[in-house]
UniProtKB/TrEMBL annotation:
<protein>
    <submittedName>
        <fullName>Unconventional myosin-Vc-like</fullName>
    </submittedName>
</protein>
<dbReference type="Pfam" id="PF01843">
    <property type="entry name" value="DIL"/>
</dbReference>
<dbReference type="InterPro" id="IPR002710">
    <property type="entry name" value="Dilute_dom"/>
</dbReference>
<feature type="domain" description="Dilute">
    <location>
        <begin position="1"/>
        <end position="108"/>
    </location>
</feature>
<dbReference type="InterPro" id="IPR052072">
    <property type="entry name" value="Vascular_dev_regulator"/>
</dbReference>
Length: 153
């Protein structure tokens, strides 16, 4: 999702983020929920879409990113910039020097308490064991399960 076209607002295949945010905002207005915390919750997403669209090359760009992305933490901004993937010839990868510049400006900023999760991380799930009050010896396995190859110990 970290490419310019994904953050675009114009009518094109890659307008997904901003377009979906607009649909959510419309829905909230229809349901009279625009005063709720849902709008505030979507602010980091709006800032992310903007970050994907903005120029990322000059000192002024770096300052503007730091000012406009107040709902994102420094870690989130840097991760988005590092993950930015050009999809067309006219796009360029974000220069590491630019990322370092943004990171140095953001050093003092707290930003959001949200964390950027690694999408490839697998969370371990543990289900508690509750022993059955039924004795295994009295349980009848239906033949429709076709587990005749199992033997009872």
């Amino acid at each position: 999702m970290c490419s310019w076209s994904k953050g675009m607002q114009i009518s094109r295949k890659g307008m997904q983020i901003r377009c979906n945010i607009s649909y959510l905002e419309e829905w909230l207005k229809e349901k009279n929920l625009q005063g709720s915390c849902a709008i505030d919750t979507m602010e980091p997403l709006c800032q992310t879409a903007w970050l994907l669209q903005v120029n990322k090359s000059t000192d002024e760009d770096a300052k503007e990113i730091c000012e406009r992305c107040s709902g994102l933490s420094a870690v989130q901004v840097v991760k988005i910039l590092n993950s930015y993937t050009p999809i067309d010839d006219f796009e360029k990868r974000v220069a590491p020097s630019f990322v370092r510049k943004v990171q140095s400006i953001l050093q003092g900023n707290e930003g959001s308490a949200q964390l950027m999760l690694d999408s490839k991380y697998l969370f371990q799930v543990t289900f508690p064991f509750s022993p059955s009050p039924q004795a295994l010896e009295v349980i009848q396995v239906p033949s429709s399960l076709k587990v005749g190859f199992l033997t009872r110990l």
